[in-house]
Design goal:
Number of strands: 14
Mean pLDDT: 97
Low-confidence stretches: none
Number of helices: 8
Strand order of the largest sheet: 6-5-4-3-2-1-14
CATH topology: Metallo-beta-lactamase, Chain A
CATH architecture: 4-Layer Sandwich
Strand content: 25-35%
Shape: globular
Distance between the termini: 5 Å
Largest sheet: 7 strands, mixed
Helix content: 10-25%
Number of domains: 1
């Protein structure tokens, strides 16, 4: 299994893209603005989209992808989301006011988008790839994902704040090689982080202390213009020997 970072920023501007990852050539993990860099041929190869939560920076390209591939595919794109997340997206996006309902276009029997329910802890098998929703704690219903390939595994937190259940899951994961975890705010904005249920460096380091493994840690969802200070605060406070760095656009993980 290969995971390629299409976008990992907390905002846009210049080369910045919001959260989106390409698994092999047929799966999207979130669908932020980074998806827009894919060619039409690559978009046509997407058969599955797994969504952490309903916020726009994580789903912005789903409506546009559906409109682009309509009429060019003979099978639907499967959108994997929890009941709560899909209800939000259905009500507020695919409602014929913000965007057409592509779950009934071109017709209800053969739509271009098909919702597939996911639940915490229940693994979705796609060939030899295992994708499992894991706990997250955000201002809307949210999950992270555990990706398991043939050689190793990776946990992506999605958007989250303090979440003991995430670490309980991670500590039972024996082959965990990579942890992708958000830190959206600097320590000066700790109150904003708490209000919006994101992490700041101080909260992140408290959370990482709960982890019993030593994966490589990659920081995602950095706010534009604040990445350097956030990373300085993380690195300066991290225990000696902890492997931690900012996630970059284009980074590739082999699992």
């Amino acid at each position: 299994m290969q995971l390629r970072v299409l976008g990992c920023s907390g905002g846009i501007g210049g080369s910045l893209r919001t959260t989106s990852f390409l698994i092999d050539s047929d799966i999207l993990l979130d669908a932020g603005t980074g998806v827009g860099d894919l060619s039409i041929e690559q978009l046509l190869g997407i058969d599955h989209i797994f969504i952490t939560h309903s916020h726009l920076d994580h789903i912005a390209c789903i409506p546009l992808l559906a409109d682009t591939v309509l009429g060019l595919r003979d099978k639907p794109v499967n959108v994997h989301a929890t009941v709560e997340t899909w209800q939000i997206i259905s009500e507020h996006i695919f409602n014929w006011k913000v965007w057409p309902d592509f779950t009934v276009i071109p017709n209800p029997d053969q739509p271009i988008l098909a919702w597939k329910e996911i639940r915490l802890g229940q693994t979705v098998m796609l060939g030899n790839r295992r994708i499992t929703p894991v706990p997250a704690n955000h201002v809307v219903p949210a999950v992270g994902f555990h990706l398991e390939g043939e050689r190793s595994s990776l946990i992506f937190s999605g958007d989250t704040t303090i979440c003991d259940a995430l670490w309980a899951y991670a500590n039972c994961t024996g082959n965990l090689q990579y942890l992708l975890i958000e830190t959206a705010f600097s320590n000066d904005e700790a109150e904003m982080a708490k209000l919006s249920k994101h992490l700041c460096p101080a909260l992140l380091l408290d959370e990482l202390a709960k982890l019993e493994h030593s994966p490589q840690v990659f920081i995602t969802h950095l706010k534009p213009g604040e990445g350097d200070i956030i990373m300085q605060e993380i690195v300066s406070g991290a225990p000696a020997g902890m492997r931690i760095q900012a996630l970059d656009h284009g980074h590739i993980f082999e699992l």
